[in-house]
Amino acid sequence: MTRRLRFGVFALALALALAGAGTATPLDDALAKLRDGVAKHPDDPEVSWALASALEAAGRAHEALAAMRSHLARWPDRPGNGWAALGRCAYRAGRIDEAIDALQRATARDERDAEAQLYLGLALRARGEKERAEAHFEAAARDPELAPEALLLSGMSRIERGETDDGRARLERVVALAPRSDSAGDARALLEDSEPSRLPVSVEAYAGVEYDSNATLGGEGDLPGASSAQDDAAFEFGTDLAWRPPLGAESGRPLELGLHYRRLDYADQTKYSEQEIRGSLSGQTTVHPRLALRFDASGGYELLDNDPYLISGELRPSLLYALGPHAGVLHVYAVGARDEYEEDPFFDSLTRSDWIYGGGAEHLLKLGQERDAWLAWGGRYLRRDTDAGRDALGFRPAYDADMWQGSLRAALSLPFQIRARAELFFDAELYDHRNLIDALTEGPESVARRRDFVWSTALSLRRPLYRSVELELHAEFTDRDSNVDLYSYQRALTGLRLRAAFP
Questions:
Q1: Whose CA, among 30, 144, 244, 382, lies 20 to 30 Å from 281?
Q2: Is the entire prediction scored with pTM above 0.70?
Q3: What's the rounded Cα separation, in Å, for the pair 458 and 236?
Q4: H or E element at residue 139
């Protein structure tokens, strides 16, 4: 049997195994025959490469990589597309740097190799080098067969970098070239999402009703932070105004100024009705293909039963680092905040006006191919220092504390055009000093440092009704377990909102 005939027999055995009943045994047998062929004919490059290609086709990426490396170390010029195949296999295995090295060698040998150009663009994009990637997508687009996918990737990259017009032009070419392809479907969706707004201003308003199982925020008595638990129905209204001035628009993430107003009116517990007016400023800049810096600031004024209640402000600088094409984004941030309460408690130690500072980190991971599907988990530490002082009874500030939090958040698309968002938080609030409220209610022998463990969760389901009008069903639940009974409570919120956005 000649070597070429032997190679054909081995390839046929593998093809039959891959197309057969789907069990592991035929595939393993076929690969074993190919390995045996390599052992018997160690100087035959065709048999050697047949094994490497079969391993890649069988989904055994790491074995295929090892076989291709070994083959090309001995026969660097055989086959002609060997380096392109090594780069493709390395990219699929997540070995981005190795893929780039192999694909650059392939394109240097033949710059008309469209598949090598496409995968080199994908690998560079995965490493955050989007501008370099675009050049290789353009080169791959010269091949009629790969043009739709290459132009789709090029258009996506340009839109992400803020070159919206050029990006949309490439997406329109995808639709014109292959109107029934998957690439055209993705291009149409991106064209719709990237439709330029005629105005740099957007407005979203909502109105709804909700049921609050604990409108007075839990506990017993009339001391600050503790009150009787009573349920009630509430009506709410809110609006958000966002303005994106031209400054920063060339970066793709322009500066944004926002104004938020919210009003909540209880049916019976009217003294707990709320109003909030808040302004915000945010901006983001890219300092490296994988690294972005973001800054958020906000400040607001809250009223309780139409009386001044709280003035607050917060600064949050952030760093966002892209870990890789499948590893998601790491978000690291610092927090600084000030809360100024309009109150004059009977005991100085119960003053709640405070400074809060700390930081945290969160890992965000994309789920599947959905653009709006993601999972995030993280944690943070915050320190609260109040303006309180030692009171006449000798008690020190009651609300100074260390606060630790773990979080799990997710968003995904459900059937019937429903977008879901869920959140779960656990907080451990560890207070510094002996608690005055415990002493007043249980006696001096029960004086303790307060410790609260808080579980909270929220769920939102939103579905479009007509154009930019959506219906939202939301629910929240909080369980606060405190060793000072007056601060323990449970609270459930359920409601329905109607949302409208313009443009």
A1: 382
A2: no
A3: 18
A4: helix 130-140
